[in-house]
Amino acid sequence: MAKMTQETFRTLLEHEITQAYTWAGSGIRGEQRRNLAYYLGLPLGNEVDGRSQVVSWDVFETVEGALPSFIEPFFSGDNIGEFLPRGPEDQAYAEQATEYVNYIIKDRNPGFLIFMTWIKDALLSKVGVVRAKWVQPDPVKQEYQGLTDEQVTQMLQDEGVELIAAASVPMPLPDEMAQQLLMAGQPLPQLHDVTIKRKRPGNVELRNVEPGCWIVSKGAKTLDDAPLVGEFVTYTRSQLREMGFSAKDVAEVKSYDASEETVDPGRIDRDDEDSIDKALESVTLFEGFIRADMDGDGIAEWRRVLAGGNLELENEECDGHEYAVLTPIPIPHRVVGMALADPVVELQRLSTGLTRQYVDSLYLANNPRTYVNMAAKVNIEDVISNRIGGVIRGTGNAAEAIQPIKTAFVASESLQGLEMTQGMRERRTGVTRYNQGLDADTLNKTATGVTKVMNAADKRQLLMLRIFAETGVKQLFRLVLRLITKYQDMADVVRLRNQFVQFDPRGWSPEMDVQIEVGIGTGDKTETLMLLQQFGQFMQQAAAVGLVGPQQVYEFGKALAKNAKLKGADEKFMLSPDKIPPKQPQPSPEQIKAQAEQAKLQFQAQQAAAKAQFDAMEADKGRAHEMRMKQMELDQQQRGRLLELAAGYMMGQSRQSGMMQEPAVNIMGGTMLDQNMQAPGVGEQQLNEVAAVINGFADRFGGGNV
Predict the structure, then answer these.
(1) Between 382 and which of 125, 154, 300, 392 could a Cys-Cys bridge form, CB atoms 3.0 to 4.6 Å apart?
(2) Interatomic CA distance for residues 331 and 63, integer angstroms
(3) d(CA 160, CA 537)
(4) For residue 341, which of 129, 57, 35 has the smallest C-alpha distance?
(5) Is-contact 228 288, C-beta < 8 A?
(6) Cβ atoms of residues 560 and 532 within 8 Å
(7) What is the pLDDT of residues 482-513, one digit of tens each?
(8) pLDDT bracket for residue 675 (50, 70, 90)
(9) Is 9 helix (H, G, I), strand (E, B) or coil?
(10) What is the pLDDT of residues 629-640, one digit of tens each?
């Protein structure tokens, strides 16, 4: 099969766009504009001068009354959606993908505002559309001067850094240091001036699409089966240049002139205005996705196009469209269903008529028409004047001259009609006065009756909420996962729960299933919380008999915290069971008895060892004391011997000098000296001095004390 030419593709594109906007303009666009006019409470066009022109705001009350019930469940918990692993290999990445995609939707993009506009568009204009688009910013060029070798090496190791140019100069050093490096054969350190290109991380950008600018093929049963889906977007030529298109194409491209009804007339565009600055001139282009077999393989692939009236700025093959669509009341086998405002429009027209009749009836009751008998010569100016206490001039009996004309008072019947339309509106939409606040008569109704009405209304709203979750919200999560797994080529570091966490989606599977958390329901959270608290008593009893484990208690705590609106309770107040260290197994009675016997034996052995150590210490003390006593005795004997030698020496000297005299007296008592001789003038001090001299000679010549 031959490849499709550019002319053939252009013909196919124009044909699909023409069919899509013709079908949308034949009915959908008019109903969308009508719903918006009723939502804003604009005049209906059937007003009569001199009568009440009040407008009932039923569409506004219905949409705004239902909006909180549809938004809060998505943001009441920590995550809007969760990814489920497709296979065992995805188990490790499912939790990471859940945290990262929820962060992209809720924090990196204005998630709450996007969801609010998304859901309100669906309730009011039949469809709410969000586009998820990958935006890759251009790399930034950076210049650095005076970097060392280590700094340059560290910079080039960063992911996404490319060296463009570099110049090196020797580092200024003292002459002595430079000479030492040269003599050692080492190169002089260099300083580098480098220019690098740093790649900036891309991001998934979420954007609300105006329902009046969005088109889809007429016969499409689902969005994935549609041959064409897209929107009309107005850009300035400057914006097109920033998007990377060539200057020639940007200057030549013209607005896509499909039809005057292609773009919502309620929008204010500058396309038809002449701009002095050519760069600020606006052009309306078709941006979307179409199925076409460009390569001739017999399979129509998705292609992303950005087309003007005379050329295509972009025409590339892609994996699929990038739109997530909500419709509150689906119609089988159609992409576009009904808005919540559609069944209320006629009721608003009816309520407006009944309200005007009620007001006119009150006006006529308070200011009735008056019959004037002109024959009584009544002054008409006095009759027309409504001045309090004013005088009416006339001739004759006043009862015959002036007579009020009685008009049937229909205010009570009008109120009954308004109550009827209110009930019809509640039955059609499921948005009741009871789930918006108590009305004046609620206390007069039985609690059971009010509860039944609220439960029925909650079921209607819960059904719409589940439709939103299973269609558009799930599509959005899959889109974001598909985009980051395909285009994100570097790890991303984000701040979650006051911690910086790194995510690298390059190894994730884009086919993981999605589970959307939409809360327990739109009913009374207080009632649900009370039921959980009552169930907590059962959990305590069940834990006592082993019917629940740590994982069940942890999940129950998460449910309790979620309904109490305590975000992050699973991280702040509880510890996941997989993070709790395992407990040691409880020993059996036999093991306990054996451990006790072993402990007793160990205690006895310790006592015996302590006693033996004590006895050994006491024995050591006794031996040490005995050794000290013996040493003291030996020292005393040695001193006595030394003194005897000294005394003998002194006596010998005295005999030689003839100084001995009778009777002799012991010089030193208890010694073996001559008991009959005495050395005159010799005392104990002289003996000690002589003994020290003798001991010194003994140490010098004999090697020890005497």
Answers:
(1) 392
(2) 20
(3) 56
(4) 35
(5) yes
(6) yes
(7) 999 999 888 888 887 677 888 888 888 888 77
(8) very low
(9) helix
(10) 888 888 777 766
Q: 41 and 64 in contact (C-beta within 8 Å)?
A: no
| Residue-by-residue DSSP string for 52-112 | ------HHHHHHHHHHHHHHHHHHSSS-SEEEE-SSGGGHHHHHHHHHHHHHIIIIITTHH
Cα–Cα distance, 616 to 624 (Å, whole number): 12
Length of the chain, in residues = 706
* pTM score above 0.90: no
Query: What pLDDT score does 627 carry?
Result: 86
| Nearest alpha-carbon partner for 249 in 196, 202, 201, 307 | 307
State which amino acid sits at residue 69: S
How far apart CA 160 and CA 695 sit, in angstroms, is 93
Predicted confidence at residue 523, as pLDDT, reads: 45
Largest interatomic CA distance in the chain: 195
Q: Could you give the CA distance from residue 468 to residue 74 in angstroms, rounded to a whole number? A: 10
pLDDT tens digits, 513-530: 767 665 444 445 666 777
Q: Which of 655, 658, 674, 657 is nearest to 666 (CA)?
A: 674
Token code pair at residue 278: 């050519």
What one-letter code names the amino acid at 630? K
Mean pLDDT of 186-208: 87
pLDDT score recorded for residue 12: 94
3-state secondary structure of 443: helix
Contact 323, 229 (CB under 8 A): yes
3-state secondary structure of 331: coil
Distance CA 671, CA 704 (A): 23
Mean per-residue pLDDT over the chain, rounded: 80
Instruction: State the CB neighbour count (10 A cutoff) for residue 102.
Output: 22
- Separation of alpha carbons 199 and 348, rounded Å: 56
Torsional sign, CA 456, 457, 462, 463: positive
Of 207, 192, 173, nearest to 105 (Cα)? Answer: 207
The CA distance from 91 to 108, in Å, is 25
Q: What are phi and psi of 341, to 5 degrees?
A: -80, -20
Q: Positive or negative CA dihedral for 384, 385, 386, 388?
A: negative
Given a cut of 80, whether residue 71 has pLDDT beyond it is yes
CA dist 438 and 447 (Å) reads: 12
Name, in order, each residue with C-beta under 8 angstroms of 367's C-beta and a sequence gap of 6 or more.
386
SS3 content of the chain, % helix, strand, coil (to 5): 50, 15, 35
Q: What is the pLDDT of residue 666?
A: 45
| DSSP run (H or E) holding 616 | helix 589-657
Strand partners, 215: 230
